[in-house]
Each structure stands twice: as C-alpha cells, then as structure tokens.
C-alpha cells in the first residue's frame, strides 16, 4: 500500500510541473523494482544475519521502489521539457500562430525618419486613422511621440511600443501577420532605450538617410544589433530629398558596418520625381496611388531607362547571396538562375543568420515604399521560433538552456522596461516561454518573490488595451509588479534567469538641488522614479560637498530630466557646474615599505606592508592585486584585508578623488604584531602605502575623450573647423554634395555649451552627437589646475 500511495503522490505532484505529455509511471515498474534480484539478494542477506525484522525489510524495499518511481518520473519530465520534445508536440495551430508573429524595432541615426516610418506603418495597418507628423506641426504630433517634450523638440526620448496586424497576400491567400513594434530614440544620450529594445526583439528595421547614408549613430545601433544577434533589414528613407543616393548607402553598409548587403529594389525616378520602386526579385514595378499612397499599382512593365540598371542590380544581389548562402552558391557555380522563391528563401536564411541585410528604399514622408517594406518584415525577419533565446539554469551552474516559445511549457519572461503611470508601475515584459494569464502568480528569480499579475495590457504608445492572456513570443505590459529593469520571471517551477542588457557608464554629472525646501519630497520621488526607469541615470550624494549629483549620458540627457522635474513634478531646480568623470592612473613602477604604528591607550594598530605598484601588466582598465609573500610574514587572513584596502584606495584616487584604473599592487613582505595587528590595520596600511607611492609611480589624471560627429551644410565647414581646432583632434572629414560630416575626438570638458556655439556658427543648421570613446591623459596645465582645485576643496573642508 505504501508503494501505491508513494506513486499516487508522485503523480499528483508532477502533473502540474510537467503540465502535459507526462505518461503515468506504471505500478508494474515499481513492483518490478521491488522484485529485482539485487533487492531479493539484499533481503536474503538481511534475513540470514537476522539484523532486521521482516517489516523493516519491506519498509526499505518500499522506499527504494518509491525512489525509483520518482527518478523515472523526473527523467520523463526532463525529456518532455527539452526543446526538441516541445517542438515535436507543438500543434499546427500553435506553429501557425508563431509563424505569423514578428517582434521588431525601428532604429537609426538622429533625424533619419524612424518615427515617420512608424507612423506610416500604423496608418497602413489600420492602427491609426490619420497620419500626424513629428514636431506636432499640425498641433497633434506623431502617435509614438506621446511625451510633450518629444513633440516640442521633434525627437524621440523614450522608446514606444505598439502592435499592428498586417495583411499580406501569399500564393493568392491573404495571411494576417501580428507585428509588435518598438520605435527607438536616435540620440546617443538615450542609447539605453535602444539597448533594452534590442535585448528583447527578434528583428529590426535599420533606417538610413538616402543623402547621408551610414552616420555615427547608425554605427552605434549596428553595434547594439550585433551584441544581441538581432537580424535586420535596411530601409533607405528620404529618397525624395535632393542629393539622394541609395547606392552610396548600400556601399557604406558593406564597408563601414562590415555586413554584406545588397539592394532588393531600384527606385523609379529620383528626388522630387520619385514614383515608386522596382522589386528586383519578381522584377515588377510597385507604385503608390490614391490618397496617402494607400493603394499599390503593380505592373510587370519596367521603365526602359532603368531596365538595364535593374538587371545589373539583380545580378549583384545574386552574387552577394552566393557569398553568404551555400544553396545559391552552388547554383551560381553551375551558372543556373535561381527562381524568385529560391532567392527569397536564401535572403531569409542569410538574414536570420545575421550574415546579410536586404536593402529596401522609399520615402516615408512622401508615402512611398512603406508597404513593400512591411512585406519584407514578414518575408525576411524571424518569428520567435526562428531565434535562439537562452536562459541560464542556476541549478546547473548557470548552464545555458534553450527556451521554446510554446504556450504549454512553464512560463519564462523578462521585464525589460519600467514606466510610471497614473495607475502604478507599468512593467514591459517579453514572454519567451509559456503563456501569461490575468490573475496568475509569478516568481521573480532575483529574490524568488511571489507576485500576482492583476492586469495585462498591450501598449499602443501611451494607450492601453486590456487582454486576459498573452502567448509565448509576445510583448506585453503588466501592472502591479514591483521589480527592477532586467528581472526574470518564472512560474516557480524553473530555476532560470535571463541575462540582462548592457548598461554603459555615465559620462557626465551635474550637481542639482530644488530651489524650495518644500519640494524635497517631490524631488526625492522623481529621482527614485527616474533611476528605476533609466539604468543610465544615476544619483549619489557627494560625501565631501554634501551635494546631490546626477550622472547621465550627456548634456541633453540631464537637461531632459531637469525639464521633466519642472513639468511633471512642478519642482524648480538649481543645477551646478557639470562634473566630468575623470580617472586616475599610474605610469611607472614605484616601490613602497610602509609601517602603520599607532597607539591610543589599549590595543593599537600595527601593520607593515612591503611591495610595489605598477601599471597593470595585462593592460586594460582593470585593477590587479597580487600577493607574493613567502614564509608567512603576513598571514593569509591579512592578505585579503590588504586587497580590500587596495580596492578601496582605487575607488577614490589621491589626485582628484576619482576612480583609479589600470593599476596593479604586488605585496612581497610585511610584519605583524601579536596583539595590535588586525584586518583594519592592514586594510589601512595598504591604502596609505598606495597613496604614498602614487606620486612616485607617475600618477596622472585621465580625461574622457568623446567621439564627436558633426553634420552641417558644406558652406559652414570653415566655421566648424575653427570651433573644433580648440576642442580636439579631427579624425575624419567627409564632404558630400551639399553637406559635410566631421568626426573628432574631443575632451568632454571642452564640449560643455558646444551646442550653443554650433548653432551660432551654422545658423542653427548643424547637429552633433557625442559618444564616449576612451580615456586619455589630460594636458599638464589642466591636470595641475584640477589637482590644485581639489586640494583647496579638501582644505576648506578641514577648516570648517
């Protein structure tokens, strides 16, 4: 009876975890296990020795049978949880649903037309009834720029999510594709928004300007896509602009972004005469017709003036595909012409493998070429089942485990963005595995905290649509979940966690305080909210000056938050001089022999450390500690205290109180005292020894250099050269037909207020972006000035 009860309990407990497909373990297996020869022989040995009673033997046998049954059930459950088994059990309806889902992002350089493209996508898919332009020219503003600041400035500050259904004809049958779409900012200051979008998306549309081609932020976006292995299609926008050259953009994708690319369309007409595009795969003309280009006119007659160009570009496409796809390569070597279906299949394979990007073209503002781009999203970008999403299994030493977007598997999701809402905290979540139902309970894997999901919504910019259930592979938002950005949620049955996104270091700081002391509560509430929402926005209180310091990705980033404080919380703030995140380092080897000996009535402090400091021999910015003590002159327990002391000394350098990077400390000898030596004494001795030896080791200040890209009309080239000669080193200059681009490495310290100078020098027509490049030694005069200023501040503190 015990065996039967054990097995019954086992079945009841495993049914919920396995959910389906777990066949019941037969009692015959248990009985067979009890009656195995090994068990019988063991039982006979017990009987012959007469050490145990008959009832004791039966109890041991029964326990063994239950354990065997449990083991079999575990193995069966594990086999049913594998990605292969889940894929085999997937129903045709589920497979079809997944095949029609696309999770995509729109990413590009500033002012390439991302939000305008998104607005057209929403209009053509029927999500919005009318098109509104960026900057709120018509008093409404683009749907995806829901924040008042975004509409005023004409820039995207926060990534906005929406969803749409696109009806596409396939083999004469109309199929509906469900597209989850995220519109991302272009400014480097808001790069975290692009970062977290790329972390959860399956594919992306990289928008390029037909005049400027690949620009500075395009390169940053490309790097983010490669970091998360996000396949992309490229859309050359603004084909109606004067000087539009899509072939330059295609060439720059190949050369600057180092990813094979080829056009799959050729424009009909150019600049103001743009009529439509020629599809090079099916060799057909696609023209937009009707109000707002809602109707497509498709014909097989290609204009005579571009027929030869189309044939040439189609051959280039096949040659480029032959470089990245084996099937097309074989056909190319055998001098066979692939069919349109074979070309499409090859483009899809190569795009999903991140080996190739097809290039489409059009003009969103002129309502041309957007519908073929939507068809390309469906044809070439992956569905959730095509991508390899992995979790880390904490029970197996964080071994990677593949996640399968199957509704019947246990739930795994990632909270990738937080947003404060009048109804509470809104958490954006990507569902990687399983399904999520309203009222369900989830576990936050960070603290194993159980949370209930009271409300699930689909986002349409700042509007919400309530849903009762969300399936695997989808993106949604939930209310009532207290968590941090990057937290993993499971249904409690899996010890999984998902890797979070990459968060870049802050490059600029400002001191800030509310003008009225009565606003302190609102100020504190706002700061907590901003830090939760944006991992690149940081706040700390300076121990010496007791000032509140906010840090971020640039001048615009911090300016936006100060403005949001004023508008959303009615808190007027005073901001101080921007603070640059300097670093300190050493340039040569310096030995030390430091003795800490203090007596203050009772146990004192005694520690002697001998060794040297030098630049990190492994290179890079990491600090390195090593012990070469022999003979036990310093016990092991004090060695770890020395290491902590060195690490603490590196947090606040001797010259400016900024972080020390690229240094190494080696301890070779020392001395202890029977009663006065302690962890504290050796920690302090290591700090003091580092500080004393720092000057002898050629301590110097490093300043952050910013890769600055400036674009302006060519007539202002001379003015900008004069501006940049004072601020940094010019790396590259590219002069176009009517616009030029300059890339320079500039000291961040010299770039404060640069936007004002640039506007004055270019009549407001120039624009620039900054991205942290590297740390470099500060000029001697600046270093001397900074050190003197820091010493004066310390002196003022002591005399207070």
Automatic annotation (TrEMBL):
Pathway field: Protein biosynthesis; polypeptide chain elongation
Gene Ontology MF terms in the entry: GTP binding; GTPase activity; translation elongation factor activity
GO cellular component assignments: mitochondrion
Similarity field: Belongs to the GTP-binding elongation factor family. EF-G/EF-2 subfamily.
Record keyword Mitochondrion present: yes
One GO biological process term: mitochondrial translational elongation
Protein's UniProt name: Elongation factor G, mitochondrial
Family matches, as HAMAP family: EF_G_EF_2_B
CDD domains assigned: EF-G, EFG_III, EFG_mtEFG1_IV, mtEFG1_C, mtEFG1_II_like
Annotated residues for binding of GTP: 108-115, 183-187, 237-240
Pfam families the UniProt entry points to: EFG_C, EFG_III, EFG_IV, GTP_EFTU, GTP_EFTU_D2
InterPro entries in the record: EFG_II, EFG_III, EFG_III/V, EFG_IV, EFG_V, EFG_V-like, EFTu-like_2, G_TR_CS
Protein purpose: Mitochondrial GTPase that catalyzes the GTP-dependent ribosomal translocation step during translation elongation. During this step, the ribosome changes from the pre-translocational (PRE) to the post-translocational (POST) state as the newly formed A-site-bound peptidyl-tRNA and P-site-bound deacylated tRNA move to the P and E sites, respectively. Catalyzes the coordinated movement of the two tRNA molecules, the mRNA and conformational changes in the ribosome.
Boundaries of every Tr-type G domain copy: 99-385
Coiled coil: 307-334
Organism: Neurospora hispaniola
Keywords from the named record: Coiled coil, Elongation factor, GTP-binding, Mitochondrion, Nucleotide-binding, Protein biosynthesis, Transit peptide
Cellular compartments annotated: Mitochondrion
């Amino acid at each position: 009876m015990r065996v039967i009860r054990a097995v019954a309990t086992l079945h009841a407990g495993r049914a919920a975890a396995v959910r389906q497909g777990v066949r019941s373990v037969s009692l015959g297996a248990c009985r067979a296990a009890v009656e195995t020869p090994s068990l019988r022989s063991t039982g006979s040995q017990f009987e012959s020795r007469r050490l145990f009673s008959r009832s004791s033997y039966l109890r041991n046998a029964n326990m063994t049978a239950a354990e065997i049954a449990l083991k079999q059930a575990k193995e069966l459950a594990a086999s049913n949880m594998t990605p292969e088994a889940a894929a085999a059990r997937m129903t045709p309806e589920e497979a079809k649903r997944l095949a029609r889902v696309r999770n995509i992002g729109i990413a590009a350089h500033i002012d390439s037309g991302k939000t305008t493209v998104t607005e057209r996508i929403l209009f053509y898919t029927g999500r919005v009834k009318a098109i509104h332009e960026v900057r709120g020219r018509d008093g409404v503003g683009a749907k995806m720029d829901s924040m008042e600041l975004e509409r005023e400035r004409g820039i995207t500050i926060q990534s906005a999510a929406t969803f749409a259904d696109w009806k596409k004809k396939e083999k004469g049958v109309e199929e509906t594709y469900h597209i989850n779409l995220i519109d991302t900012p272009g400014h480097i200051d808001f790069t975290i928004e692009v970062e977290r979008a790329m972390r959860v998306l399956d594919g992306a549309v990289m928008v390029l300007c037909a005049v400027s081609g690949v620009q500075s932020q395009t390169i940053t976006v490309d790097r983010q896509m490669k970091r998360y292995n996000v396949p992309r299609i490229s859309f050359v926008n603004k084909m109606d602009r004067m000087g539009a050259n899509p072939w330059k953009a295609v060439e720059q994708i190949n050369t600057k972004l180092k990813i094979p690319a080829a056009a799959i369309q050729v424009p009909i007409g150019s600049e103001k005469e743009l009529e439509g595009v020629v599809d090079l795969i099916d060799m057909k003309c696609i023209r937009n017709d009707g109000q707002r280009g809602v109707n497509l006119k498709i014909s097989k007659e290609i204009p005579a003036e571009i027929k030869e160009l189309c044939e040439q570009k189609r051959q280039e496409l096949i040659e480029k595909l032959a470089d990245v796809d084996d099937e097309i390569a074989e056909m190319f070597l055998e001098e066979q012409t692939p069919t349109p279906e074979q070309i499409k299949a090859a483009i899809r394979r190569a795009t999903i493998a991140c080996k190739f990007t097809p290039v489409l073209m059009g003009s969103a503002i002129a309502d041309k070429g957007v519908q073929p781009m939507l068809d390309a999203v469906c044809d070439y970008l992956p569905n959730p089942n095509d991508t390899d999403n992995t979790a880390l299994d904490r029970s197996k030493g964080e071994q990677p485990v593949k996640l399968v977007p199957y509704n019947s598997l246990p739930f795994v999701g990632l909270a990738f963005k937080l947003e404060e809402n009048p109804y509470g905290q809104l958490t954006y979540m990507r569902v990687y595995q399983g399904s999520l139902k309203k009222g369900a309970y989830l576990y936050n894997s960070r603290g194993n905290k159980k949370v209930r999901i009271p409300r699930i919504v689909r986002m349409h910019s700042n509007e919400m649509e309530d849903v009762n259930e969300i399936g695997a592979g989808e993106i949604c938002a939930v209310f009532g979940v207290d968590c941090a950005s990057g937290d993993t949620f499971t249904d409690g049955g899996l010890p999984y966690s998902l890797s979070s996104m990459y968060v870049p270091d802050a490059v600029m700081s400002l001191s800030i305080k509310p003008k009225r002391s009565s606003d302190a509560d609102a100020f504190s509430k706002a700061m907590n909210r901003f830090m939760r929402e944006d991992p690149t926005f940081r706040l700390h209180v300076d121990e010496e000056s007791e000032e509140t310091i906010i840090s971020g990705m640039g001048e615009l980033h911090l300016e936006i938050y100060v403005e949001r404080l004023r508008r959303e919380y009615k808190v007027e703030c005073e901001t101080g001089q921007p603070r640059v995140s300097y670093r300190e380092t050493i340039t040569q080897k310096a030995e030390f022999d430091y003795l800490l000996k203090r007596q203050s009535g009772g146990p004192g402090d005694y520690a002697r450390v001998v060794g040297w400091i030098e630049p990190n021999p492994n290179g890079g910015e990491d600090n390195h500690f090593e012990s070469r003590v022999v003979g036990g002159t310093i016990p092991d327990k004090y060695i770890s205290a020395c290491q902590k002391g060195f690490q603490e000394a590196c947090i606040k350098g001797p010259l400016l109180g900024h972080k020390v990077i690229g240094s190494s400390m080696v301890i070779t000898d020392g001395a202890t005292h029977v009663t006065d030596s302690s962890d504290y004494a050796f920690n302090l001795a290591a700090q003091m020894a580092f500080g004393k030896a720092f000057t002898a080791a050629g301590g110097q200040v490093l300043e952050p250099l910013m890769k600055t890209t400036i674009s302006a009309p060519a007539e202002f080239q001379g003015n900008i050269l004069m501006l940049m000669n004072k601020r940094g080193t010019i790396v590259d200059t590219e002069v176009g037909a009517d616009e030029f681009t300059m890339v320079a490495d500039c000291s961040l310290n010299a770039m404060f207020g640069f936007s004002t100078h640039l506007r004055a020098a270019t009549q407001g027509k120039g624009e620039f972006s900054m991205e942290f490049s590297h740390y470099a030694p500060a000029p001697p005069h600046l270093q001397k000035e900074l050190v003197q200023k820091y010493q004066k501040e310390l002196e003022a503190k002591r005399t207070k």
